[in-house]
Specification:
Blueprint: H1 2-77, H2 80-107, H3 111-135, H4 140-150, H5 156-174, H6 178-210, H7 215-274
Helix pairs in contact: 2-6, 2-7, 3-4, 3-7, 4-5, 4-7, 5-7, 6-7
């Protein structure tokens, strides 16, 4: 009986160990399967995101190509005679505007630093040193200072007159090219209207030749005629924005020149009094 009991207990222990081992293996297999499923879901999400991004890029590229084709179609439908002239106005106007923007930005000067340098040069080396200092600085403000310092020996009144006279010259240089931009702003919509009027005349000529008013014929002719007007207005709006920016930039430079010129006269007066 004792031997049977021991044998039965050993068998039960072995069976329990086997059950525990099977349970642990099952848990490990479940964990591994869950991790594999999570990895597969992550990969699937990445692939879906990549596919969505590729689809969006393709759609955007297709939309861009469609827009370009549509613009080209409208350009051809409007008639190359007037549409080409309007396009030339846009190109020339933008070229002049960009050149003016670059020139005006380069002409901008730090007037506070310039005035401090002039005052230091006057204190250390006199008018000649100040003149050499302003001659080495670029910009309309420094050029006006140079012209004023060249008349410093003739008195403060001559300095003021020289600054006013040369300031008008510099203002003319700053405004160079604006008249052409203004011309293109006025010319582009006028050409568009002219193309529209000529298109309407052609549409009525077609109606007269057919002898009947066809809605498709009238609508097509009016559409083609109005395309030139739209193109001219678009060109005028674009160039008008650049023109207003240039005018505001020039006004800012002119105000800086006037303020700096007044400060230069004050510096020369203090220098003469100290002498």
């Amino acid at each position: 009986m004792l031997s049977g009991v021991l044998t039965l207990g050993y068998s039960s222990y072995s069976i329990a160990q086997e059950v525990e081992a099977d349970s642990a293996q099952a848990v490990a297999d479940s964990i591994a399967a869950a991790e594999q499923r999570a990895e597969e879901e992550r990969i699937a999400q990445q692939e879906a995101a990549a596919a969505a991004a590729a689809a969006a890029a393709a759609a955007q590229a297709e939309e861009t190509r469609t827009f370009h084709r549509r613009v080209l179609k409208y350009f051809i439908d409007g008639g190359w005679e007037f549409m080409g002239i309007v396009l030339v106005c846009l190109i020339l106007g933008l070229a002049i505007a960009i050149e003016r923007i670059i020139t005006l930005n380069l002409a901008t000067t730090n007037t506070k630093k310039l005035l401090a340098g002039v005052e230091d040069a006057l204190a250390s080396g006199g008018v000649e040193a100040a003149k050499d200092y302003t001659a080495g600085v670029k910009g309309p403000v420094a050029s006006i200072f140079t012209q004023g310092l060249m008349r410093a020996s003739e008195g403060v009144e001559m300095v003021e007159k020289s600054i006013i006279s040369y300031g008008s010259v510099e203002m003319g240089r700053l405004e160079k090219g604006l008249v052409w931009i203004s011309l293109f702003i006025s010319l582009a919509p006028m050409l568009g209207f002219m193309g529209t009027v000529l298109g309407m005349i052609q549409a009525f000529d077609a109606i007269e030749a057919v002898g009947d008013i066809s809605p498709s014929l009238v609508a097509g002719g009016i559409k083609v005629a109005l395309l030139t007007t739209v193109a001219g207005l678009i060109v005028a709006v674009i160039l008008q924005l650049f023109y207003n920016y240039l005018v505001s930039k020039i006004d800012s430079l002119v105000n800086d020149m006037e303020d700096a010129s007044i400060s230069l006269v004050d510096i020369l007066v203090r220098h003469n009094l100290s002498k």
